[in-house]
């Protein structure tokens, strides 16, 4: 991780998570944006849902079913996601949170780290 900028790390995380999606879920999102903020790595993934899933989301039962299924898929691959963050940043993940919007088809992932990674990076960039 030596001499990598905050923006460079954010781009690397976005690229790695897109690849993880393709390898693990069989398809990737349309776009991914990662932000490092204090002790968090926040990832916004757009274009997650398929046209069929949007159709199912028109009913409350279908929407809950899609949310539940997608949550289980991500949860089953959580260790791989946390390994990606560790490999790129050198930081252990303390906790992982995620949710998907069945309206916009976007997913937000939040990786909470043990320390203030942004501050650590800023010290290296000075």
Short overview:
The chain is α+β, with helices and mostly antiparallel strands and 126 residues long.
Summarize the topology.
Layout: H1 6-25, E1 31-37, E2 40-46, H2 51-56, H3 60-76, H4 78-89, E3 93-100, E4 107-113, H5 117-125
Antiparallel strand pairs: 1-2, 2-4, 3-4
The count of helical stretches stands at 5
Question: Helix and strand succession?
Answer: HEEHHHEEH
- What would you call the shape? elongated
Q: What is the topology, as strand order, of the major beta sheet?
A: 1-2-4-3
Helix and strand content put the structural class at alpha+beta
Distance between the termini: 16 Å
Biggest sheet, in brief? Answer: 4 strands, antiparallel
Percent strand equals 15-25%
What number is the mean pLDDT?
93
User: Would you count the extended β strands for me?
Assistant: 4
Sequence stretches where pLDDT stays below 50 over 5 or more residues: none
Radius of gyration: 15 Å
The share of residues in helices is 40-55%
Provide an overview of this structure:
Residues 5-113 form the Na+-translocating membrane potential-generating system MpsC domain. InterPro entries: MpsC. This protein has helices at residues 6-25, 51-56, 60-76, 78-89, 117-125; strands at 31-37, 40-46, 93-100, 107-113. The protein is of the alpha+beta class. It has a four-stranded antiparallel β-sheet. The longest helix has 20 residues, at 6-25.
Describe the structure using short key phrases:
single chain, 126 residues, alpha+beta, four-stranded antiparallel sheet
